């Protein structure tokens, strides 16, 4: 029986799914919410100086199939009538926060309890950035809901991904032209705790 993705108390395997945080910006959160984003790529971090860079010695920090990623995003906390609720920057494309909010809080500071998105890891693999295809770019969610943006179609999606990647990583020496090694993480959105747990 395949027990991947089954809660620990039900699994015949001794391994429980692990939960880890992962950060997404507002644009990518919207793509996840719309169902367009089902992949992410992140540069491979070798870790401490002198650590092995051999592929067989690397361990994906985003887990393996069956693990859970909880999303950190830009957010704010609102307390009203003794009750706490959360608002999210991705839901306010114009940047305007709810009434009474002074400023948004950085995603890195989001506590687990404020997260609204859980992602079931379907697969992780090591690749070179330029190995990605146009279909991969679409799976990354670039251009979701932006039909009027320049460069339509699958080819445009790849170009948009290249620009998005370079905007984040080129200044760190990890741009598209450098073709860095990346972790490719395939996932699907699942209900928050207490909901049904999909099977792999």
What would your notes on this structure say?
With 200 residues, this protein is α+β, with helices and mostly antiparallel strands. The protein has a domain of 129 residues: Sulfate adenylyltransferase, CATH 3.10.400. Helices cover 16% and strands 24% of the residues. It contains three helices and seven strands. It has a five-stranded mixed beta sheet, with no helix packed on it. The longest helix is centred in the C-terminal third of the chain and has 17 residues. The chain is globular and about 55 Å long.
List the helices and strands and how they pair.
Elements lengths: L18 E5 L2 H9 L4 E5 L24 E5 L2 E6 L2 E6 L29 E11 L5 H6 L13 H17 L11 E10 L10
Parallel strand pairs: 1-3
Antiparallel strand pairs: 2-7, 3-6, 4-5, 6-7
Provide key terms for this protein.
200 residues; alpha+beta; Sulfate adenylyltransferase; five-stranded mixed β-sheet; two-stranded antiparallel sheet; 3 helices; 7 strands; 16% helix; 24% strand; disordered N terminus; disordered C terminus
Mean of residue pLDDT values: 82
CATH superfamily of the domain at 19-71 and 115-190: Sulfate adenylyltransferase
Rg to the nearest angstrom?
18 Å
Which fold name fills CATH's third level, the topology of the domain at 19-71 and 115-190? Sulfate adenylyltransferase
Low-confidence stretches: 1-13, 46-52, 147-152, 195-200
Global structural class: alpha+beta
Per CATH, the class of the domain at 19-71 and 115-190 reads Alpha Beta
- Largest sheet data: 5 strands, mixed
From the coordinates shown, what is the CATH architecture of the domain at 19-71 and 115-190? Roll
